[in-house]
């Protein structure tokens, strides 16, 4: 039993190193975090989607006297796409609404990051070829490109 626990602990410790970020799409921005996020929010509302929240992680850190490079998360969605996914599998609600993180890395570069919709629903019964996945993928690509200044 003791060997099993040691082996399990070693395996769990190694998991983060084995994890891949292939399912995270990253887009480099030409502006700072606040400007990029403002452009993203404008693009989202301009496309007719609903913004549910804008979370400023750095402000949250500052509120408890901790430092964090600029980092903001936009939570948004379009019920026409999201509802279809949740009708196919209610567990899709764990991944919806959509989220895009805008952050500054250690080199001072601003990036947008989001979960690739084609991979996001891997743990559901949703088919990879569902029309709304292609729509989400296209929308996220266009929205983040506009926000990045491309």
Note down, in words, how this protein is organized.
The protein has one domain: TT1751-like domain (TATA-Binding Protein), CATH 3.30.310. The N terminus is likely disordered. The chain is globular and about 45 Å long. With 150 residues, it is an alpha+beta fold. It has a 5-stranded antiparallel sheet.
Q: What is the C-alpha radius of gyration, as a whole number of Å?
A: 18 Å
Low-confidence stretches: 1-20
Strand content: 15-25%
Q: Enumerate the strands of the largest sheet in spatial order, edge to edge or round the barrel.
A: 1-5-4-3-2
- The portion of residues assigned to helices is 40-55%
Overall pLDDT level:
88
Q: Count all strands and give the number.
A: 5
In DSSP terms (H or I, runs of 4 or more residues), the helix count works out at 6
What topology does this entry show?
Elements (H helix, E strand, L loop, with lengths): L1 H17 L5 E5 L4 H14 L3 E7 H6 L8 E7 L1 H10 L9 E7 L5 E6 L1 H4 L10 H18 L2
Antiparallel strand pairs: 1-5, 2-3, 3-4, 4-5
List keywords for this structure.
150 residues; alpha+beta; TATA-Binding Protein; five-stranded antiparallel sheet; 6 helices; disordered N terminus; TT1751-like_sf; Camphor resistance protein CrcB
Brief digest:
This protein has 150 residues and is of the alpha+beta class.
């Amino acid at each position: 039993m003791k060997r099993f626990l040691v082996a399990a602990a070693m395996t769990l410790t190694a998991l983060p190193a084995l994890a891949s970020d292939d399912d995270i799409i990253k887009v480099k921005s030409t502006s700072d975090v606040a400007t990029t996020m403002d452009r993203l929010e404008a693009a989202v509302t301009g496309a007719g989607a609903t913004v549910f929240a804008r979370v400023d992680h750095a402000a949250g850190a500052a509120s408890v006297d901790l430092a964090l490079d600029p980092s903001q998360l936009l939570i948004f969605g379009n019920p026409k796409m999201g509802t279809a996914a949740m009708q196919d599998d209610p567990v899709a609600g764990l991944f919806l609404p959509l989220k895009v993180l805008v952050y500054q890395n250690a080199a001072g570069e601003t990036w947008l990051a989001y979960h690739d919709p084609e991979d996001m629903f891997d743990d559901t019964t949703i088919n990879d070829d569902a029309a709304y996945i292609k729509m989400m993928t296209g929308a996220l690509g266009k929205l983040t490109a506009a926000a990045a200044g491309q």
